[in-house]
Amino acid sequence: MGMTMTQKILAAHAGLDSVTAGQLIEADLDLVLGNDITSPVAIKEMEKMKTNGVFHKDKIALVPDHFVPNKDIKSAEHCKCVREFAYKHDITNYFEVGQMGIEHALLPEKGLTVAGDVIIGADSHTCTYGALGAFSTGVGSTDMAAGMATGKAWFKVPSAISFKLTGALSPWVSGKDVILHIIGMIGVDGALYKSMEFTGDGIANLTMDDRFTIANMAIEAGAKNGIFPVDELAIAYMKEHSKREFKIYTADEDAVYDEEIVIDLSTLRPTIAFPHLPENTKTIDEIKEPVKIDQVVIGSCTNGRIDDLRCAAKVLDGRSVARGIRCIIIPATQAIYMQAMDEGLLKIFINAGAVVSTPTCGPCLGGYMGILAEDERCISTTNRNFVGRMGHVKSEVYLASPAIAAASAVTGQISSPESLS
Amino acid sequence: MKACGKVFKYGDNVDTDVIIPARYLNSSDAAELAQHCMEDIDKEFVKNVKKGDLIVADKNFGCGSSREHAPIAIKASGISCVIAETFARIFYRNAINIGLPIIECPDASKGIEEGDEVEVDFDSGVITNKTKGTSFQGQAFPEFMQKIIASEGLIPYINSQNK
Ligand code: SF4
């Protein structure tokens, strides 16, 4: 029986010729990741273990990004715990304020994730690296602790749904709309325990940043991972960013999928997820009543990359944020921040009346830097709109692309750039 | 091994942000986290929960973030077992790894209501609704999972194996 792309990567890392869905395996890890929220719990667990330290000092990445620069004393204590652990174990890839960025934007940019890797991270959006053809998945702190100590993790081999993408996206439609469309279609548990494997000639028409956005939100459909085939664009990206050797795996011709879903990219419209689940999607055309907003957030591991900022700048150039609206823009890494500066994007944002922040998760998880009051609404390029996600339990989050978020900042209600004069 | 207590019943897609809101994630102290468990969907939970009680939910319990703080908060609040139609996968892993028993059983999730008195036998997987006099067959815990739970989590279990 043929294997899916994910199954092939897992088999190779478990030292097996083949695996089948449902099989329990132990796989070697290429990278173990943690952040300022999850690492302290893992570090505490690791200290309880009878080990002599970490399995490989180059294969652990510690990225304080959620409440960083420290938002309060408790966050500072957490970061201190991570920093001390990193120094004690001489962890190569520890990223301090000033070098850090949001973990899932930072690691590919630093060349730490490449095709063929098996990666676990104590953060659910670890699935992002599937854009490069790696198997990567989110785990908890205990798995992270065991992974740091042993370099291994247990997995149940997933079955897969194949998403065959054809055609090309229309103007103002992006990777975010693709993944919101898919989640709207299959639901927040539509791919529970499974891989989402993207195939089809439409992939060639997606930028790397589109692919990162799509893979990033696989977890929002319940998936174990999302994965893209490795094409010339992905190879060029890896060559530019990484010195590591990558390995290309392709699904067997006769790989078995639970289902194949065909999506013609040219038919997609800007899509928005209404509160309080990412599956509550509507296209911009289906919104009949005006949805007034109070805040706009453009950033996060989903949409804080350079393509996203360029798109927002295109909309905001020569326009202003509407009176009474707060527009918060957060480049996901220092390099993206710098590039946005070089390209003059920051100037466009500030001239439009937006605020630009240093890289941080901040408001995405309701940490700080843009918390909502009771009854306030935010349109955000982040990935979750659960109850209370960005602040007060009676506040609301609408998920959308940078194009829609930026246009909404201009009008004060959910809008598409198509409607701006 | 058995669990027995009163049931707190919830619906579909209970996410980790309502189990333990991110505003409390600047702590990793179990007792402190337990004080805010479920507060965004059920303010009464923390006041009413007693040691041994159970949570029963519908589909996709624990979806969202990978925060282990979620099963930790539930366990520290006194909950002895969570039963659901299905669980989100990271939550499932985390619960086992920290030694919080969880069982997937669609029939039980349909046949149990808020306040029912329920008993779970982990060896046989049988779930008994004492209030209604009904019972359901859930998945029995494989031996290694029972051992992880008896050792209060994966790490103590690994350590006990290495002795
Ligand atoms: S940006 Fe948001 S979703 Fe991404 S890692 Fe940070 S908190 Fe998580």
Task: Please specify the SSE layout and strand pairing.
The complex is a heterodimer of chains A (421) and B (163).
Chain A: H1 5-13, E1 24-28, E2 31-35, H2 38-48, E3 60-63, H3 73-88, E4 93-94, H4 103-109, E5 118-121, E6 135-138, H5 141-150, E7 152-156, E8 160-166, H6 175-186, E9 195-199, H7 208-216, E10 225-227, H8 232-241, E11 259-264, E12 271-273, E13 281-283, E14 295-298, H9 300-303, H10 306-316, E15 326-329, H11 334-342, H12 345-352, E16 355-356, E17 377-380, E18 396-399, H13 402-411
Parallel strand pairs in A: 2-3, 2-5, 3-4, 5-6, 8-9, 8-11, 9-10, 14-15, 14-17, 15-16, 17-18
Antiparallel strand pairs in A: 1-7, 12-13
Helix pairs in contact in A: 2-5, 6-7, 10-12, 10-13
Chain B: E1 2-9, H1 16-19, H2 30-34, H3 45-48, E2 54-57, H4 69-76, E3 81-84, H5 89-98, E4 102-104, H6 106-111, E5 117-121, E6 126-129, E7 134-137, H7 143-150, H8 154-161
Parallel strand pairs in B: 1-2, 2-3, 3-4
Antiparallel strand pairs in B: 1-5, 5-6, 6-7
The complex binds iron/sulfur cluster (SF4).
Residues 66, 102-104, 123, 125, 300-301, 361, 364-365, 382-383 of chain A line the site of iron/sulfur cluster.
